[in-house]
Amino acid sequence: MSPCARFQPYRQLLNVPPESLALDRMTPDGRVGTLLLHGAAAWRSGFTPLRVSLAKRGFSSAAFDFSGHGESSNNSPGSLARRLVEAEAVLRWLPDPVHTVVGNSMSGEIAIRLAATLRDAKVHLVLLAAAIYHRNAFEVPFGQAFSDVIRQPESWRQSDALTAIESFTGSLTIVRATNDHVIPHSVADLIEHHARSACRKRIVDLTGQDHHVIAQSQRDAALCDRLADCIIMGRMPIC
């Protein structure tokens, strides 16, 4: 039996008007501890090998498709603001407290904003090749207008996520790909600098990896296990 077959997720639909979000829980211990947020043009299924690696260690997880992606509906324009609403709805719906929030690529911004609202020193925020965006991009529907805002040089330095993370009191792990040609190298440094209240913070550099670390982890078991270690070990010791 394959590892994936041993840890079949429980699939469900969550109504977040006007959308229906496809989500699943992989709960070897019967509880959900980690919420994973996928990036742009991605599905929750991209996290499956990583989540199996977590499950083999006894760590549960939940993931969902943002509207317009994967198996979720596509009834309204997508935006960063809409993504945050959907992530908050999933977080409220989950039956057990979430102790780890993982944001990949575009969802770095969402994960930061979500984790900052929890105001819990036991929360672990994990950013994987994560992006942040100019504050003016937050409400703008995805498309040309959104692209026009974020393509301004170093526009990410004016992100409200930087303000949000200043109040974050949990543990922070930033996983940076050294060959990332999508997210500037200094984004991680800026986030780490603004996380002044974090009880523990670190940057983990993945030497030789490009921006697509999640896609690569589907084919590279060693990378997958290393990402799982970053998620698990960043919580120890609890602040």
Question: Would you mind describing this structure in some detail?
Answer:
There is one protein chain. It is globular, with a radius of gyration of 16 Å. Helix 2 packs across helix 9 (221-233). It has helices at residues 3-6, 48-56, 80-93, 107-118, 144-150, 160-165, 186-194, 213-217, 221-233, and strands at 10-16, 19-26, 34-37, 61-64, 100-104, 124-128, 171-177, 200-206. The chain has an 8-stranded mixed β-sheet with strand order 1-2-4-3-5-6-7-8, sandwiched between helices. The relative contact order is 0.14. Helices cover 33% and strands 20% of the residues. The chain has one domain (3-233): Alpha/Beta hydrolase fold, catalytic domain (Rossmann fold, 3-Layer(aba) Sandwich), CATH 3.40.50.1820. By secondary structure, the protein is of the alpha/beta class. Helix 2 (48-56) links the parallel strand 3 and strand 4 (61-64). This is AB hydrolase-1 domain-containing protein. Residues 35-154 form the AB hydrolase-1 domain. InterPro entries: AB_hydrolase_1, AB_hydrolase_fold.
Could you say what the CATH architecture is? 3-Layer(aba) Sandwich
**CATH level-4 homologous superfamily:** Alpha/Beta hydrolase fold, catalytic domain
What is the name of the CATH topology?
A: Rossmann fold
Q: What form results from the Cα inertia axes?
A: globular
Number of helices: 9
